[in-house]
């Protein structure tokens, strides 16, 4: 039987704008709503939102008149004004909150505008997500009303001249609705703690006092927290402390590399639910058990566009070319990778968020995240995606019965040709040479381009095994500990320079 049966009154269903059958119509309605709200802003006036709204083909007119932006271009042209207190730039009113985000490759912080409209939209999506639990079968009903442990950034935000800045998870936790307060852990006091290690210690200290049914967060930091709880109280697994733990809501990074190690910490199976909550908005969530992908949010506060992720639309560095092919949701195909453009209720317009997605079910609008536009390896045409890497790591770790919670890959010149250098994190005993050969063989199996190039210009594969703590230490030295920070799967640029210094003991 279903977990619970909810028959919502029609008025509530309409208020929540629960999904209907036509994603194209939903998306055009969202676009009109965004354009109407922002038509009197500087951005709306420059790009003739009134004219777009009058067009019979509003989507195509929008694409014709409004250029594509990435963070650097939209910040330099528009968002920097909002930090100076200028109102009505890209969205009505003044921006009072900014999510600080460095992604997984940039060294300097990005200031992503957060508006009340965006937060309200996110909250509606969160409620919809909770309601989808009725689609899950044979899971413990009692766990629904237990505590929700949400481990994210500090809610103690930086106060600046006219605005606050901090981690999106911190901003969201700071604005937890009153009705959710009894369920929310670790509570306001611990959530405000800026020191990640101190926050972790406080959570471990309080753990036996809580009855947790849900844990929410990035897999690496959740796993670290659970390991510390098990170690502190000398128990076999986390269910000895939290017997009603039944759900892990995760996002931001593929869970597959973490799954084997994570399940060693459990006393019984739990349900994993994936979400796609970026600093720029709540984009997708898994809405049914055993789904292969996450359902895109098509009818709330984000307008989505899709750029085929290929050499016609992106250069060798992963930068988008001028005037790329851009598709709306009804024009996409299953099985192809697309870079995602979003327009949101916080004044992000045709914004290249940096993620690549693939439709697993077009009718249901279900996608998986396949990587980042900057996080892929194609030195000689091997077209190696993060999705390929994750699948190889998952398969090999299962075959060898080891846990590989972190890894990263570097492309480099080698004897007039090229090579890949893997750095694998595991605390299990493993033969590095066997690991290297197995990963290489699996990638040849799942990626034809990689197999071809391994016979020509991609001459060698190197692999080093490191303790997981080495990866965590590097993140600490980079100031990327806890919260939403993730270790980049492909190292390039400044991060690669710092990684090489770290391995030599020169980064302190």
TrEMBL record:
Residues 297-361 form the GH3 middle domain. It comes from the Bacteria. It holds the Pfam family GH3_C. Coiled coil: none annotated. GO terms for molecular function: acid-amino acid ligase activity. Residues 388-492 form the GH3 C-terminal domain. PANTHER family: GH3 DOMAIN-CONTAINING PROTEIN. This is GH3 auxin-responsive promoter family protein.
């Amino acid at each position: 039987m279903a977990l619970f049966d909810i028959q919502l009154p029609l008025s509530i269903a309409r208020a929540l704008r629960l999904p209907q059958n036509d994603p194209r119509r939903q998306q055009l309605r969202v676009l009109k709503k965004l354009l109407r709200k922002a038509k009197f802003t500087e951005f709306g006036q420059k790009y003739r939102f009134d004219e777009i709204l009058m067009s019979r083909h509003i989507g195509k007119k929008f694409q014709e008149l409004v250029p594509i932006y990435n963070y650097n271009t939209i910040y330099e042209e528009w968002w920097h004004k909002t930090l100076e207190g200028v109102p009505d730039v890209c969205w009505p009113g003044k921006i009072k909150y900014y999510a600080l985000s460095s992604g997984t490759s940039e060294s300097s912080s990005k200031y992503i505008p957060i508006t009340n409209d965006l937060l309200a939209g996110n909250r509606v999506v969160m409620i919809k997500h909770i309601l989808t639990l009725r689609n899950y079968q044979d899971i413990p009903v009692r766990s629904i009303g237990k505590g929700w442990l949400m481990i994210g950034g500090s809610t103690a935000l930086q106060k600046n001249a006219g605005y606050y800045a901090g981690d999106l998870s911190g901003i969201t936790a700071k604005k937890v609705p009153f009705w959710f307060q009894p369920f929310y852990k670790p509570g306001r006091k611990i959530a405000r703690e800026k020191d990640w290690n101190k926050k972790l210690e406080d959570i471990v200290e309080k753990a036996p006092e809580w009855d947790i049914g849900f844990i929410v967060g990035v897999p690496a930091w959740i796993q670290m927290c659970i390991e510390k709880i098990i170690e502190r109280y000398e128990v076999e697994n986390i269910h000895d402390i939290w017997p009603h733990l039944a759900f892990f809501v995760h996002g931001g990074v593929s869970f597959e590399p973490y799954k084997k190690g994570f399940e060693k910490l459990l006393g019984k199976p739990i349900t994993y639910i994936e979400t796609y909550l970026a600093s720029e908005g709540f984009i997708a969530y898994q809405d049914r058990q055993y789904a292969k992908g996450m359902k895109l949010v098509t009818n709330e506060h984000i307008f989505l566009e899709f750029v085929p992720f290929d050499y016609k639309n992106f250069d060798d560095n992963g930068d988008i070319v001028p005037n790329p092919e851009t598709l709306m949701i009804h024009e996409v195909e299953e099985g192809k990778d697309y870079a995602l453009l979003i327009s949101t209720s916080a004044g992000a317009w045709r914004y290249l968020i940096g993620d690549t997605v693939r439709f697993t079910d077009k009718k249901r609008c279900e996608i998986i995240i396949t990587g980042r536009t900057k996080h892929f390896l194609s030195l000689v045409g091997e077209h190696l995606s993060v999705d390929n890497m994750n699948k190889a790591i998952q398969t090999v770790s299962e075959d060898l019965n080891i846990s590989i919670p972190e890894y990263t890959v570097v492309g480099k010149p080698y004897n007039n040709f090229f090579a890949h250098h893997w750095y694998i994190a595991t605390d299990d005993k493993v033969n590095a040479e066997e690991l290297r050969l197995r990963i290489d063989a699996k990638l040849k199996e799942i990626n034809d381009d990689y197999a071809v190039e391994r016979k020509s210009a991609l001459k060698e594969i190197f692999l080093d095994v490191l303790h997981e703590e080495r990866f965590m230490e590097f993140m600490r030295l980079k100031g990327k500990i806890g919260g939403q920070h993730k270790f980049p799967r492909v190292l390039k640029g400044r991060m690669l320079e710092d990684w090489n210094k770290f391995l030599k003991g020169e980064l302190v």
